[in-house]
Design goal:
The protein has 262 residues and is an alpha/beta fold. The protein folds into two domains: 1-119, Alpha-Beta Plaits (2-Layer Sandwich), CATH 3.30.70.20; 142-261, Rossmann fold, CATH 3.40.50. It is 19% helix and 21% strand. It is built from six helices and eleven strands. α5 (201-211) packs across α6. The chain is elongated and about 75 Å long.
Length: 262
């Protein structure tokens, strides 16, 4: 039987946790994983109790408590990390950061509950197909190259982010601009709403830029004032990552026109 001792260890409030995954990447020991859309301590012996994950949580769902727990086992952590990197005993670095729960009522739906909405896929752009009309007429083809596309759901270590050209688009641009797939061509598309989404996107995007070699960033935003927050998120991430990445901004008017570009 594993011995226990009274020590400091993290505690996660599942009611507060929104499944952003920032704590998972902050834990060098690999003690945290997203399970069914919530952060979970996978082993007490992997947690050193120092709380490096606390400041990364945007909703204050993580605290440190003192209770009886298995002692921190550095040797076990090292073995676990080696197995995880090799894909033998846990999630690899390029694996989906959330796991599907077969008992979840929404397991076959694309919902934000740790089910298929958070599985990672690289996609090939769709092939244009002929439609009725003059010779040569084709239907518009999707240029989406990955899943998920919601910034809050994309793992910071998703394999398609490496050496990617990013399109960071406000949610509303897809409905205002009819040819948005022109901007998506050849890019990894990440969508977000700085006004309605309750997540620190600047912190997450900073980690994405730090962890991956990003080739360029295109910001696609609406002309409304609240959408300026998306640009500030990108500026903050660029500043804090310390990387020099080419970037540009496209602004869409509420009438569906490109009103500004720089």
């Amino acid at each position: 039987m594993e011995k226990v001792l009274k020590r400091q260890i993290i505690k996660i409030d599942p009611e507060k946790c929104d499944g952003c995954g920032l704590c998972v990447s902050a834990c060098a020991e690999g003690a945290l994983q997203l399970v069914n859309g919530k952060a979970k301590l996978v082993s007490e012996s992997y947690c050193d109790g120092l709380g490096a994950c606390l400041p990364k949580c945007p909703v204050d769902a993580i605290t440190i408590e003192e209770r009886e727990a298995a002692p921190f086992n550095e040797a076990a952590v090292q073995k676990y990390l080696e197995k995880r990197e090799s894909g033998e005993g846990g999630a690899r670095a390029d694996a989906p950061i959330a796991q599907a729960d077969p008992t979840c009522p929404a397991a076959n739906l694309h919902l934000d509950c740790g089910c298929r909405s958070t599985e990672v896929f690289a996609l090939q752009p769709a092939v244009q197909r002929p439609v009725e009309g003059p010779p040569g007429t084709t239907a518009a083809a999707s240029q989406l190259r990955q899943w998920p596309c919601q910034l809050r759901l994309v793992p910071i270590n998703a394999p398609y982010l490496e050496r990617a050209h990013l399109l960071i688009a406000a949610d509303c641009t897809a409905y205002a601009y009819p040819n948005i797939h022109e901007f998506m061509r050849g890019k990894i598309t990440l969508i977000a709403c700085p006004k309605l989404d309750s997540i620190d996107y600047a912190a997450k995007l900073t980690e994405i830029l730090e962890l991956n070699e990003i080739k360029s960033i295109t910001v696609l935003k609406m002309e409304v004032p609240c959408c300026g927050g998306l640009l500030e998120i990108v500026k903050s991430a660029l500043r804090h990552s310390g990387k020099l990445i080419p970037w540009r901004v496209m602004t869409i008017s509420i009438k569906g026109m490109i009103s500004e570009e720089y």
